[in-house]
């Protein structure tokens, strides 16, 4: 279990991370979201011991992270980099060895990974000859081949095409199922919602929201309604308790002042019987992010 | 040694050792030497017999002296004794020269394509003959004549501190040769390998591979791993040259040029050769450490030259002083610089071989360099760790001084 207790980091007078607490358990995925400069990368850098916290502590199973623990950490940096002049094999085997995986074992595993991720080319191809997509897959393999116990992914989906995004998500889920602790940052709320068990939302270095994804959404009440039926926008806008109405395809997205208004709205729109759609949901992570971080 | 350190050393060594660039670096000087040697050999062979043939038109006793001195004068004396025939042969370029001796006068006629003739030696013999002739006229005995024409015996000897004396001419040649060789070898090797380590670190830093590496290892492991790996390459490089040199010597030891070279370097002992090699290696390590910590301040590959320029300049300082020193070995500034790390490697071995310094002084200088290398390596790891993942817009040197200031505080 990874624990961050009262973690603070200052750069001169600037507070990068303020009193952060976090618990990450094996087999769980933590999504870290926040605007640029919110403190996500700084948090990762402290966990990796690239920089020291100003105060607070980071522990792994109750003790500070040792060099032996670090070998079990897989890290995918935001800005990717590979040795262009080395072959895929030379590169991956080097990283695997540094993480304590025997070379021979890594060589066997590499064949499997290249096949599974559908990397076009041979293990003996130089990285500089690979397409961007294949180079991204190689970087992914470098971070995952030794089956890390803790996986830190800084913007893992940035720059990936939809196919590679999907491959990356599958691998994250596979690692999670193998019992790895995974923490990742992303601006894509859709992906965060899909694979995170928990999330931490940061704003200017401070945690503004933390908990299970569904639990956080529910905290905001089911104030989002999508309806389809024979209604006009004016009619819905004038309904008491309705804040906004936006045309969305064949229907309308409605924001309510409170969850209870949904019952009254339902009764009103179904007064003549059947309507094709009525869905009352908590706000999406994207909505919450905009509300809590971006717009406030 | 930790397993990770061993992996980094191996990887650094292997990557470069397998690269074309490394072998180009190692083989190009050997190839260059082989080409120069081959061309010189070819030219000599193509020239064929270069011993000049001279017709000596003179009284028979004078001709006899020249015939007897053919070897020492490096000439062939033609059988032609007739001036007209000789000049005809000279015009037809069948002779390289015609020497006409007439009493106190002598004329040596050559043509533009003549092989080189040692005129000084001919003049010397003619002088002796003239003096002999005059002595006979004055009625001197042959012993008196011999005494009269005997040249003044001036020997040049260098008195060494160990009470041994050496031939000054040979010693001067060897000293100059050693000074030039050590200066060039050290400077060139330092420049090659500082550039190599700076590029390696800059590449990993600018491409952000460093972050992936440091996620698994520590900055310390990367720092020492790279220095030791590149140092291994430099050592291998020197070993290749030493082995090639030995093989070339064994293969061509009967060659006149090699014989000449080895006699010039006869003052260089195995002990000294080992000392000089060790000194060069310590200097390379010292420069690698300095370059590593400066390279950790680089943001991208374009800054590599900016980073290694002052290092190259520092290496050149020692090289320059190694020449100045041969003319003023007892200058106090030169003496002090022979103990200053980063510079001493180009000076102390030369001072030792020229017997300006004793072995204890040379060993003290070597130990100072070694200690400086260890201290800088230890001290530098903090600077490396602090900067290898940070990117600053400041100039490299100003970053370095800021870091040194922080370290001091």
TrEMBL record, chain A:
Domain ABC transporter: 2-229
GO molecular function: ATP binding; ATP hydrolysis activity
InterPro entries found in the cross-reference section: AAA+_ATPase, ABC_transporter-like_ATP-bd, ABC_transporter-like_CS, ABC_Transporter_VariousFunc, DrrA1/2-like_C, P-loop_NTPase
SMART domains given in the database record: AAA
Record key words, sorted: ATP-binding, Nucleotide-binding, Transport
Name of a matching Pfam family: ABC_tran
Name recorded for this polypeptide: ABC transporter ATP-binding protein
Organism of this sequence: Leuconostoc carnosum (strain JB16)
UniProtKB/TrEMBL annotation, chain B:
Domain spans labelled ABC-2 type transporter transmembrane: 23-379
PANTHER family from the UniProt entry: MEMBRANE COMPONENT OF ABC TRANSPORTER YHHJ-RELATED, MULTIDRUG ABC TRANSPORTER PERMEASE YBHS-RELATED
Signal sequence annotation: none
Protein name as catalogued: ABC transporter permease
Pfam families: ABC2_membrane_3 (PF12698)
Keywords: Cell membrane, Membrane, Transmembrane, Transmembrane helix
MF annotations from Gene Ontology: ABC-type transporter activity
InterPro entries: ABC-2_transporter_component (IPR051449), ABC2_TM (IPR013525)
GO cellular component, one term: plasma membrane
Subcellular location field: Cell membrane
Membrane protein topology class: Multi-pass membrane protein
Stretches that traverse the bilayer: 21-43, 176-202, 223-250, 270-295, 307-325, 358-379
Predominant location category: membrane
């Amino acid at each position: 279990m990874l624990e961050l207790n009262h973690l603070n980091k200052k750069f001169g007078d600037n507070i990068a991370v303020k009193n952060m607490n976090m618990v990450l358990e094996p087999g769980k995925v933590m999504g870290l979201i926040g605007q640029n400069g919110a403190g996500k990368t700084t948090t990762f850098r402290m966990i990796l011991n690239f920089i020291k916290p100003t105060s607070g502590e980071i522990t792994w199973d109750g003790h500070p992270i040792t060099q032996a623990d670090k070998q079990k950490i897989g890290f995918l940096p935001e800005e990717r980099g590979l040795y262009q002049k080395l072959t895929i094999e030379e590169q991956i085997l080097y990283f695997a060895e540094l993480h304590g995986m025997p070379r021979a074992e890594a060589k066997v595993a590499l064949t499997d990974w290249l096949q599974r991720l559908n990397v076009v080319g041979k293990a003996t191809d130089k990285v500089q000859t690979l397409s961007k997509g294949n180079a991204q897959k190689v970087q992914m393999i470098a971070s995952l081949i030794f089956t890390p116990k803790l996986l830190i992914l800084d913007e893992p989906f940035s720059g990936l095409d939809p196919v590679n995004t999907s491959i990356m998500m599958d691998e994250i889920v596979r690692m999670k199922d193998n019992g790895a602790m995974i923490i990742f940052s992303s601006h894509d709320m859709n992906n965060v919602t899909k694979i995170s068990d928990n999330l931490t939302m940061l704003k200017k270095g401070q945690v503004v929201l933390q908990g299970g994804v569904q639990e956080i959404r529910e905290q905001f009440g089911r104030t989002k309604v999508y309806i389809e039926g024979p209604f006009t926008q004016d009619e819905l806008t004038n309904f008491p308790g309705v804040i906004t109405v936006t045309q969305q395809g064949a229907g309308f997205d409605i924001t309510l002042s409170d969850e209870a208004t949904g019952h009254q709205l339902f009764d009103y729109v179904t007064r003549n019987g059947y309507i094709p759609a009525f869905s009352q949901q908590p706000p999406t992570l994207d909505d919450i992010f905009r509300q809590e971080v971006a717009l406030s | 040694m930790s397993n990770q350190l061993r992996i980094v050393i191996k990887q650094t060594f292997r990557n470069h050792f397998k690269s074309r660039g490394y072998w180009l670096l190692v083989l190009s000087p050997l190839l260059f030497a082989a080409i120069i040697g081959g061309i010189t050999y070819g030219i000599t062979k193509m020239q064929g017999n270069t011993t000049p043939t001279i017709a000596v038109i003179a009284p028979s006793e004078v001709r006899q002296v020249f015939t007897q001195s053919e070897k020492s004068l490096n000439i062939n004396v033609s059988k032609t004794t007739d001036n007209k025939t000789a000049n005809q042969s000279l015009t037809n370029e069948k002779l390289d020269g015609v020497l006409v001796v007439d009493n106190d006068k002598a004329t040596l006629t050559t043509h533009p394509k003549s092989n080189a003739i040692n005129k000084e030696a001919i003049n010397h013999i003619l002088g002796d003959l003239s003096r002999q002739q005059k002595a006979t006229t004055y009625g001197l005995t042959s012993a008196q004549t011999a005494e009269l024409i005997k040249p003044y015996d001036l020997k040049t000897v260098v008195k060494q501190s160990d009470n041994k004396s050496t031939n000054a001419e040979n010693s001067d040649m060897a000293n100059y040769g050693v000074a030039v060789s050590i200066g060039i070898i050290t400077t060139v090797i330092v420049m090659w390998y500082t550039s190599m380590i700076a590029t390696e670190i800059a590449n990993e830093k600018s491409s952000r591979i460093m972050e992936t590496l440091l996620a698994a290892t520590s900055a310390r492991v990367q720092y020492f791993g790279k220095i030791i790996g590149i140092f291994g390459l430099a050592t291998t490089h020197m070993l290749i040259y030493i082995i090639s040199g030995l093989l070339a010597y064994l293969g061509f030891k009967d060659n006149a040029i090699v014989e000449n070279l080895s006699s010039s370097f006869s003052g260089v002992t195995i002990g000294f050769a080992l000392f000089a090699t060790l000194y060069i290696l310590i200097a390379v390590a010292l420069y690698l450490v300095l370059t590593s910590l400066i390279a950790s301040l680089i943001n991208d590959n374009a800054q590599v030259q900016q980073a290694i320029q002052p290092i190259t300049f520092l290496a050149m300082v020692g090289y320059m002083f190694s020449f100045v020193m041969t003319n003023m070995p007892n200058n106090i500034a030169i003496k002090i610089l022979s103990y200053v790390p980063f510079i001493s490697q180009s000076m102390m071995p030369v001072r030792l071989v020229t017997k300006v310094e004793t072995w204890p002084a040379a060993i003290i200088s070597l130990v100072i360099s070694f200690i400086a290398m260890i201290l800088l390596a230890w001290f530098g790891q903090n600077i490396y760790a602090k900067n290898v993942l940070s990117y600053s817009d400041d100039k490299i040197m100003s970053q370095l001084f800021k870091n040194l200031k922080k370290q001091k505080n």
